[in-house]
Structure formats: C-alpha cells, structure tokens
Design brief:
The complex is a heterodimer. By secondary structure, chain A is of the alpha/beta class. Chain A has helices spanning 10-21, 59-66, 138-148, 165-174, 188-196, 206-221, 279-284, 317-332, 339-358, 383-391, 398-405, 418-425, 441-445, and strands at residues 2-6, 25-29, 74-77, 80-86, 91-96, 105-109, 113-116, 120-122, 135-137, 150-151, 155-160, 178-184, 226-228, 230-236, 243-248, 261-264, 267-271, 274-276, 288-289, 292-293, 306-308, 374-376, 381-382. In chain A, strand 5 (91-96) and strand 6 form a beta hairpin. In chain A, helix 1 runs parallel beside helix 8 and helix 3 (138-148) packs across helix 4 (165-174). Chain A is globular, with a radius of gyration of 22 Å. The model of chain A has no long low-confidence stretch (mean pLDDT 91). By secondary structure, chain B is mostly beta strands. Chain B is built from one helix and nine strands. In chain B, strands 3-2-8-6-7 form a five-stranded mixed beta sheet, with helices on one face. Chain B has a three-stranded mixed beta sheet with strand order 5-4-9, with no helix packed on it. The longest helix of chain B has 7 residues, at 37-43. The termini of chain B are far apart. The chains are: A alpha/beta, B mainly beta. At the A-B interface, strand 9, helix 3 and strand 10 of A face strand 1, helix 1, strand 5 and strand 7 of B. Strand 10 of chain A pairs antiparallel with strand 1 (4-5) of chain B, so a sheet runs across the interface. Bound molecules: flavin-adenine dinucleotide (FAD) and FE2/S2 (inorganic) cluster. Flavin-adenine dinucleotide binds at residues 6-12, 29-32, 37-39, 81-82, 117-122, 139, 142-143, 146, 164, 167, 274, 277, 280, 310-311, 317-318, 321, 436-437 of chain A. Flavin-adenine dinucleotide (FAD) binds at residues 6-12, 29-32, 37-39, 81-82, 117-122, 139, 142-143, 146, 164, 167, 274, 277, 280, 310-311, 317-318, 321, 436-437 of chain A.
Chain lengths: 453, 102
C-alpha cells in the first residue's frame, strides 16, 4: 500500500504514524518548510533555538510524533504545495520549491490511498474598517508571535469568539506586546452552558481544562481584562488602524446601544472561529456538509480511497485532529483500527461538539455592518452591493451574485468572504474552486517531471 | 512604531540571530535569517505594501497564506505571499498595486 498524506499538522502526522504501523509506504507533503501545521508551529531552523519548548505547547508529544518522518518507509516532502487533484487519473499534482516562487518543480503522485489533512484558517466576520492595515486575524498574530517572535503591534486588542483567543493573548504577551483586553462575544451563559453540559464527559478533557486555567492565570497576572458579551464593531484610522470601537452584545450578538467604548490601539486581532480548507477535497469530488468534508466512522470521504482528518472535517483542536488522523492512517493503510483508537477519536469529537455550542456565532452579527462596509476584501464589494444583488430577482443564485458584485473573484478566490457571503444570502454553499493553489502559467506549461520514489 | 521582533536577549527560546538585509522599493530593511518577508517588514515598521483596486493599502491579514492581502514582488517574481515566503539575504522586494488606473 502506498499512502499519500497532504498536511503535516497534528492530523497528518498522526495519520503517517498509524499508516506506517499498519505497514504502508507513506509520503507526507506540506507546503511549509517545517512539519507541525498550525498547532505545532516550529520556529525557523535558522533561529537555532535552544529552548523551543518555551513557546511550543506539547513539544515533547510533537518531537515524538515528528520522528515518524524519519521512518525508512516514510518520505517527507516539505516545501511541496499540492495544487490540484486529477479525479480521472487519481493523481496528486505538486509544486515543489520556494513558496510562490518561479521555477518550482512539478511532480505528480498516484497513491493507492490519499489522506487529506489540510486544516483550517481563521474566520473573521466583517465589521466597518476590518480592511485597514493593523487589523489581523487571531491566527496571524499567533503565527507571527509563535513562529517568528514578531509582535504585530505595541498595544493590541484581542477579540472574537472561542478559547483560541487565550493562547493568542499569551503569545502576544510573550513577544512583549501590551494586550489591552480579550473580548469574547458570547455571554457567560452561552459559554457555561456549552462547556458544562454533559459534565461527566469533562474528565476526558482534563488536560484542556488545565490549559485554560493557565491562560486565565497569565491574563490575571498581567491585569488584562477578559470580557464576555463584548465585540469589536468598528476599526478606525486613515491608512491604518488607530482606534477600535467595542460594544456590549446580546446572546445573538446584536449590539446594545449606548455601550460603545473606544480603545486606542496600533493593532487589533479578531477571530470568530475557523473555516476548513477543503479545496483538495472539492477537487477530488468529496461531498461537503456546511463546508466541512463528510467522513464516515473510518474517516472515509464519499470518494473511494480518499480519507480526511483534522479540521477539514470539523473544528475541534489539535487533540481531535490527531485522533482522527490516527484512524484515517490506519484504515487507509488497510489496517483495522483498535477499539481504543476509535474511542479516543469519539471522545475527541465530543470535545468539538462542546466547543461549537459554547462559542457559536450569533446570528445578529450583521447588525454591525453598514451599507458601505466591505465584505469581500479582495474586490472591495460592500454589504450594500451584496444585499441589493441578492434581492435582485432577475439574476438569482450564487453565480449571478458573484458576477454581479465580483465578491469572491479576487486573489483569495472567496477563501475569506465565502462563508460570509453565503451566510448573508441565507445559504451554505461555498466551495467551487477546482484549483487548490494558484499556479503560474509558465509552471502549468512546464513538463511534469514524473513520479520520484 | 508598531510591529517588532522580540530582542534576542529577552527571548526565552534562546535564539541565534544571523542578520540579513533586503531592499523594499530600494530601501534597505534588516532582519534575521529565518524570518518571513512579512515578519521582516512588520518588524521594520511597515504595515502595508500593496494597494487594492480602489487604491486602499493592505498588508498582512491572515498570516498563513489564505487571504492574499500580503502579495508583493520578490526578485522580479510578482504575487508572492509575503507571509509564506522566508526572506533571503539580498532579496529585492517591490510593493504591488492592483489599482485600475495605475
Ligand atoms: C493561524 C492559526 C494558528 C493556530 N494556532 C494554534 C495554537 O497556537 N494553538 C492551538 O491550540 N490551536 C491553534 N490553531 C488551531 C489549529 O487549526 C488546530 O488546532 C490544529 O492545528 C489542526 O490540525 P490539522 O492537522 O487539522 O491542521 P493544521 O495544523 O492546520 O495542518 C494543516 C497542514 O496542511 C498544510 N496544507 C494545507 N493545504 C495544503 C496544500 N494544498 N498543499 C500542501 N500542504 C497543505 C498546511 O501547510 C498545514 O501545515 C491555529 C489555527 C490557525 C489557522
Ligand atoms: S497575510 Fe493572508 S496570505 Fe499572507
């Protein structure tokens, strides 16, 4: 059996480990130069860090897991962007070389089984001014702080929804930024209900509870306010953000008038959860549910010999991603997953459920928007243009909407505005992109170099 | 000031800093080996280096290659995502514009 895994995050690495155990030949691809994905983000080799565990949570676990990449039956291909999947030939198309560079090598692999573990990126809901430089996703702040030791600003506000805001605030403090506050839009009642329903299951996530307690202590030590039921509703500045407006919001995230507060900041980072990156799964023809790749109990997608694991199947953090990867790796290699492996995966999925109920996106968030708020960052399509086009009965449907407003047609191809635009239209349909990663015409024309061992 | 690179002597990870230098529209910018182009620019005080169709400024947004807000030209190759590209000593960077009348 020859198994190809796309993504070397927690899901992909666990998949590699278990596919190797089941006896397969494994190739692991990642567009990044270092393994680890988002959670186990590594410092650049050139930093020659003596104590990387100071910023990398779960470093011991990661060191153990990444050792699989040196296994004699494992090929590890860093710097390899998978840009397409050919359904007819079941071929994985790869560009290997510098990120977005010219002159990358074009390669193809035709595996017996393919495991997609391409992860997620931040979801940030639009608000007036979110396109200003100095407004970042929470993940961007995290990636720069944890992965490079760069602070995005001196005075930073962290806002949005979900427990991920806490490690972001901690990492910002770690690189010397002043965090003026951490705002969770959901009220205490929603968060508590989500986390403490079925309390008998909490024992399984004791590790997570400890992690949260540590973040809480860090915030308290630095006297950083953590507020629930408050959201960023506007960023202001001429050529970059200078101040941000927050407001109390109700459980449905509608703004409580008169509760606005302005903070002077030079950066703000906002994350309202994560969006899966299912482009390859779409190219392979896998069925999606609400943007996530549909999998069965063995992590099989709806396409033969294509498996999916990690945050492309649902948002549940690194432990969930790894538990899914383990099952996918085992089954893809023709093995039979042990009951423990399945139980661990199911327990992890229960955690993902809680996460979703404790930190939902309130339906009334669109009350922050005004007519001229930009929704599609690339094409600068406004909320007003979108609502007018959506109400136009002459050309209904998402394609007419796209062509009429250009939303989703810019460089990011709807990665950022896609979920928002479909939500504003009242639908869930999101992904049509057959090209996974942009590729230069010269590279497309170049001869494929074949299939190295 | 806005962005910055945590100084080595304050960084508990115990880094080794090897200085590198690139130019941005001809202006020299210094950083350390291993930084992304985006990280170097942010730490040097840039917040934007691209303009949109309407001429609005953009820099980093998502930090991981999803939003394409951070595009710039590296050694004459356009549309490189600054957040995904490790900087190399001597890189010549140019800022980009998508302005319709530019
Ligand atoms: C910016 C960001 C920072 C985060 N930081 C943290 C954190 O510090 N702590 C935390 O608890 N959670 C963090 N998360 C949440 C995180 O997504 C998950 O908990 C976990 O990393 C998910 O694991 P995964 O294996 O599913 O995906 P990921 O870890 O995202 O791994 C996916 C991998 O696939 C690769 N990939 C994707 N598409 C392609 C392609 N076409 N070709 C080649 N390679 C590809 C990516 O380079 C990546 O390495 C972060 C999320 C984001 C978006
Ligand atoms: S900041 Fe989003 S692609 Fe670089």
């Amino acid at each position: 059996m020859n198994v190809v895994i796309v993504g070397a995050g927690p899901a992909g690495l666990a998949a590699a480990e278990h596919a190797l155990w089941a006896g397969a030949q494994v190739t692991v691809l990642d567009q990044a130069e270092t393994p680890g994905g988002q959670y186990h983000r590594m410092l650049p080799d050139a930093y020659a860090a003596k104590r990387p565990e100071r910023v990398q949570h779960g470093r011991a676990e990661f060191d153990r897991r990444r050792r699989v990449l040196a296994h004699p039956r494992c090929h590890w291909w860093p710097g390899s962007a998978v840009w397409a999947f050919d359904r007819a030939e079941k071929a994985v198309h790869i560009l290997r070389g510098q990120s977005d560079g010219g002159g990358r090598r074009r390669l193809t692999l035709v595996p017996d089984a393919l495991i997609l573990a391409t992860g997620a990126h931040d979801r940030t809901l639009p608000f007036p001014g979110w396109e200003l430089p100095g407004v970042y996703t929470a993940g961007a702040a995290q990636a720069l702080a944890k992965g490079e030791r760069v602070a995005i600003g001196e005075r930073v506000l962290v806002a949005g929804a979900g427990p991920f805001l806490l490690p972001v605030a901690e990492s910002l403090l770690g690189v010397g930024a002043e965090v003026v506050g951490v705002l969770e839009a959901n009220p205490f009642s929603t968060v508590r209900k989500g986390w403490s329903s079925r309390p008998w299951r909490l024992a399984a996530h004791a590790g997570k509870a400890g992690e949260l307690a540590r973040y809480a202590t860090t915030l308290a030590r630095h006297r950083i306010p953590y507020r629930l039921g408050r959201a960023v509703i506007e960023a202001r500045g001429v050529d970059r953000v200078r101040e941000v407006v927050t407001a109390r919001v109700r459980a449905d995230w509608s703004v409580v008038p008169g509760t606005e507060r302005t903070y002077e900041v030079d950066a703000v980072c906002v994350g309202h959860g994560f969006v899966p990156q299912p482009e390859l799964a779409v190219a392979a023809g896998c069925v999606l549910d609400d943007g996530f790749v549909r999998v069965d109990a063995a992590q099989r997608t709806t396409v033969d010999d294509v498996f999916a694991a990690g945050e492309i199947t649902g948002i549940g953090g690194a432990v969930t991603a790894a538990a899914e990867g383990a099952v996918a790796g085992c089954v893809a290699a023709g093995g039979e997953p042990s009951p423990e492996l399945i139980r661990a995966r199911d327990r992890a999925l229960a955690f993902a459920d809680r996460l979703a109920t404790a930190h939902p996106i309130g339906a009334a968030w669109r009350s922050w928007l005004s007519e001229d708020t930009i929704v599609c960052r690339c094409e600068e399509t406004t909320y007003g243009e979108l609502t007018r086009a959506a109400e136009d009965t002459v050309c209904p449907g998402p394609h007419a909407l796209k062509l009429g407003t250009r939303a989703g047609l810019g460089p990011c191809q709807g990665r950022i505005c896609g979920p928002t635009v479909s939500e504003l239209r009242g639908g869930t349909e999101r992904h049509h992109r057959p090209i996974v990663q942009p590729i230069r015409l010269g590279e497309l024309a170049a001869r494929t170099e074949g299939e190295p061992g | 000031m806005s962005g910055w690179l945590l100084p080595r002597d304050r960084d508990p990870v115990g880094r080794t800093d090897r200085p590198i230098r690139i130019t941005v529209d001809g202006e020299p910018v210094t950083g350390i080996a291993g930084q992304s182009v985006a990280g170097m620019l942010l730490a040097a005080g840039w917040t934007s280096w691209r303009t949109t169709r309407s001429g609005a400024p953009r820099g980093v947004f998502c930090g991981i290659g999803a939003c394409f807000d951070c595009l710039l030209t590296v050694n004459d190759v356009p549309d490189v995502r600054a957040c995904r590209r490790p900087a190399a000593d001597g890189d010549e960077i140019r800022t980009q514009s998508r302005e319709e009348n530019a």
